[in-house]
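Lay summary. Proteins are chains of building blocks that fold into shapes, and those shapes determine what they do. In this project we predict the shape from the chain. Here is one chain we studied, written as its sequence of building blocks.
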Amino acid sequence: MQDEFSQKQMGQIRSAIVSGVGEALEQIVLPRLVALETNVDILQTNVDTLKHVQSEQGEQLDRIERKLNATIDTTDHLEVRVKALETKFST
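And here is the predicted shape, written in a compact code that computers can read:
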């Protein structure tokens, strides 16, 4: 008996290994990659949503700041008028 494999046997072994690796990729790795791709898509959607919410909140803060500045300007103007009236009527 020979300890060495014939070329035909080596070809069959290689073919079996390639087939086994291909099946493993198909049954284990590819489904996991699809699941990961789905998760990445979900994360991208969440990031896009967060960016949109952040943008809206920034716009709301800008509006609040403008209103606050207008209120402060009005208050400052009224204080000047009140002081002028106090000065006018205190003499």
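What the prediction tells us: The longest helix spans residues 7-90.
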